[in-house]
Amino acid sequence: MSTGATAAGPAAARSGSTRPAAGNLRDHAYVALRSRLMSGEFSFRDRLTEERLAALLGVSRTPVREALTRLAGDGLVEKRPDGGYYPAEPDLGSLRDLYEIRITLELRGLLRAAEIGTAHDPELLESLRDDWRALRESPPSPDPDFVALDEDFHLTLSRASGNTELANLLDSVNARIRPVRMHDFVTADRVHLTISQHLEIVDRVLDGDLEASVHALRRHVGESMDVVEKRAARAITQMVLRRGRPSGRF
Questions:
Q1: In this predicted model, what pLDDT tens digit does every residue of 87-140 receive, in sequence order?
Q2: Closest to 117 (Cα-Cα) out of 161, 164, 167
Q3: Quick one: which of 174, 181, 161 has its CA closest to 107?
Q4: Can you say whether residue 83 is alpha, beta or left, with left for phi > 0 and alpha for psi between -120 and 50 degrees?
Q5: Could you tell me the CA-to-CA distances from 224 to 4, 28, 41, 53, 62 in Å, in that order?
Q6: Phi, psi angles (nearest 5°) of residue 242
Q7: Residues 71, 37: Cα–Cα separation, whole Å
């Protein structure tokens, strides 16, 4: 399993102080801009122009253009009617509603097994546990890309319940909250705690202790929501404060 993270961590990407080899320029531009966006470095009114961003990062316009396309796919920037890219403003108002839907879907996946008298797929869960034990032995560096591994864990857990439509609905909700959830995995303590909590959840399910697994899952998702909400709100505050300056072109 791999996060797909580049060698430069979030802090290095934010500083833009280390110029990578030519073959890594696209990833460098993407990671650097993502880090700046997530830290609230730009105002919501800043048009993110290729020329200015290329000068800021010390790269050509091509990797910046590709990075902006990827960031739009992530939901971190948006293309407006004037044809330019701008930082996307997270909708924290709906975040709790979406987290409520997420936990409802995940808990249903845990509880349906007990209600219909069938066990979760042990082969799926044992493979999942092996993957996360490996991550515990060699934890990845903190990086927003870790959100993909986190989503994979929860989707696999849901599929193991035997109802693939539950997993499909969960996948849809995850896609909507992914841009904000990236804020959860920018510190080592959150990555390590997530790994530990995932292993606790899957161990409880494999042991057949669904009551304990429900409790562990509620705690895990609730803590994640609190962290995400606070960090995203901090970034939004920084971006709003920058509205006081003249609108810029980056």
A1: 988 888 888 899 999 999 999 999 987 788 788 999 999 999 999 999 999 999
A2: 161
A3: 161
A4: left
A5: 22, 27, 23, 32, 36
A6: -75, -10
A7: 10
